[in-house]
Write a structure and sequence with these properties.
Two copies of one chain form a homodimer.
Chain A: E1 2-6, H1 19-29, E2 39-43, H2 44-51, E3 54-56, H3 64-73, H4 77-86, E4 87-94, E5 97-102, E6 107-109, E7 123-125, H5 131-146, E8 151-160, E9 163-174, E10 179-181, E11 197-199, H6 200-212, E12 221-225
Parallel strand pairs in A: 2-8
Antiparallel strand pairs in A: 1-12, 2-12, 3-7, 4-5, 5-6, 8-9, 10-11
Helix pairs in contact in A: 1-5, 3-4
Chain lengths: 228, 228
């Protein structure tokens, strides 16, 4: 059995907070002791807040191009400017939806620049610069304190082409191979699979997303136990 | 806490099997009693086998077009013929990857025509014709026998544009709204969300996919308990 356990009573994370330390404190408050092979799913929003990947739109001077795009999509030109600054490539702009490729190589809406769950009226969050490193930092701190080698995955909510509704996917991880290959494995009837590769990291984030929520739930860290 | 519980000792499903009845039998073998709000995730493969959505490639005469496409992609022309017959539209064909839009409106690889977990060397499965109806049939049978109104979701493995690795998504459901809207809800800081809609059904299938596997695990039905 797989258990998806939300950590309750999580405090509001602020810039320069030691996230790994706070996670350990909250685990304790929840009477949870980490076990070998546990997986922690951490919402991008609190990584961005802790690491300071947030921008006050008041400080942004939009370019002419951002102003023009914003007009077409009925958006805040300063928000569009930040999206463009975070983009390596614009993939699509239609009906007010701006799809870009980020510096990390993620193809997503608005370069992942997000207004939700940020303090202040005009604060937006950027994706962490190196989410694998963010995950590794948390994992190593935890390992040094409680001697458990767990996996840490950073989760973000993404919309998808051809599907309604967003799901949670992984934008970075440490201590786990994000992909699981079934190639060369036999199926129920002895047929050898040729191309099946599953994104475990994305599926783990989606599982966590079911209890994490998108609004004021205040459960940005989810413990997954029993995954083999 | 969300529990993802695989049903163990599931028999091999054959054409015309009463899947809902078998699920109830297997739940009993697993000492599990259904509770209100439980969710059953059922693999497409066993729906297709039970309902007879399988085709022996020996019976297929490929068209000239199928032969041509097969040659380019180093594929079995009869398999390509079935893919084309199941397609409403060809979206892309590059490097041997054939992406189509199915009659249901799913945009996916090979119209969902799949070789894995099918009996016999040259048997492929088609997607069920009406997966919502397949889910409803199981749900209603269960309701009539054990007086529990549960949700049933049919799950399939899909690859995605711009992401490595497949994940499980929903191709049909009954007893649950597949989308959850957060629009007009407040976030942690009182900001009102404007566009957040989550595909709960897809996330539930991905959660189930983590224990379902892709090869010879023999766990085509997963019980999800505790989802609110």
């Amino acid at each position: 059995m797989l258990k998806i356990i939300p950590l309750e009573q999580f405090p509001i994370i602020k810039q320069n907070d030691n996230l790994a330390k706070i996670i350990l404190q909250v685990l304790k408050k929840n009477n949870l002791e980490l076990q070998e092979n546990d997986i922690l799913i951490v919402a991008q929003s609190i990584i961005s807040r802790a690491e300071g990947w947030i921008i006050d739109l008041k400080s942004i001077e939009p370019s002419k191009f951002a102003i023009e795009l914003a007009k077409q999509g009925n958006k805040d030109p300063r928000h569009v400017e930040v999206i463009l600054q975070e983009a390596k490539n614009i993939c699509k702009y239609r009906n007010g939806v701006l799809v870009t490729e980020t510096k990390h190589g993620f193809v997503c809406a608005n370069s992942g620049v997000d207004k939700s769950n940020m303090p202040g009226e005009e604060i937006v969050s950027l994706l962490p610069l190196d989410p694998d490193k963010s995950a590794k930092k948390i994992r190593e701190y935890i390992k040094s304190r409680v001697k458990r080698d767990i996996a840490v995955i950073i989760s973000d909510t993404h919309n998808r082409p051809f599907r309604l509704g967003a799901i949670n996917i992984a934008i970075g991880c440490s201590g786990i191979n994000p992909l699981k290959s079934y190639v060369e494995k036999k199926d129920l009837f002895g047929y050898t699979l040729k191309s099946s590769v599953t994104s475990i990291a994305d599926q783990l984030c989606s599982a966590a997303g079911l209890v994490m929520g998108e609004a004021d739930e205040g459960k940005p860290v989810i413990l997954i136990r029993g995954f083999q």
